[in-house]
Write a structure and sequence with these properties.
Elements lengths: L18 H4 L10 E3 L7 E8 L3 E8 L6 E5 L2 E2 L6 E2 L4 E7 L21 E10 L2 E8 L5 E7 L5 E8 L3
Antiparallel strand pairs: 1-4, 2-3, 3-11, 4-7, 5-6, 7-9, 8-9, 10-11
Length: 164
């Protein structure tokens, strides 16, 4: 009873389970993810985000459908073939689309404070193919998704888990 003669309600506090138990990333694996489709597509932008179980890289495309090759391994500059050195373990992302509006940069996005991502670099665009480098803290499970929208566009999504 309170000082005003009313009963107090007890509200239970829900404590989240451990991240590993609630993150279904164990099925993703770390092998290459490939779609050989080729389209006359353009990359509109590249952005990233942090989630409870993974870090996410999103490549926005002007049209639907895109070919890609995402795999752990060294990243090379389009056209010259020079090696692009990244912080952490390298993931090479080849998108079969033009990246004309992307600036060539070793720091394409600011990923400071991310759990898994260490660096995102633009490695060039040449003959309708664009290469990005993603530096991550270790070889961890990843998945690649193709999502429709917004509008007539689509998104290529690369998620890299925080843990096995």
């Amino acid at each position: 009873m309170t000082a005003f003669g009313m009963a107090m309600a007890v509200v239970p506090v829900v404590v989240p389970q451990a991240e590993a138990a609630s993150c279904p990333t164990y099925r993703w694996g770390s092998l290459a993810k490939v779609d050989g489709e080729f389209t006359a597509n353009d990359i509109g932008s590249v952005r990233s985000g942090r989630h409870a179980c993974f870090d996410r890289l999103v490549i926005d495309l002007d049209d639907r459908g895109v070919g890609y090759d995402v795999r752990y391994g060294a990243v090379y500059q389009e056209g010259s073939g020079d090696r692009v050195y990244l912080r952490g373990t390298d993931i090479q992302i080849i998108v079969r689309a033009w990246g004309r509006d992307l600036r060539n940069s070793r720091e394409l996005l600011d990923v400071r404070g991310y759990s898994t991502f260490r660096q995102v670099a633009m490695a060039g665009t040449f003959e309708g193919q664009t290469t990005l480098g993603l530096g991550v803290r270790a070889r961890l499970p990843m998945r690649v998704l193709e999502l429709d929208g917004p509008g007539d566009g689509s998104r290529l999504v690369i998620d890299v888990a925080h843990s096995w």
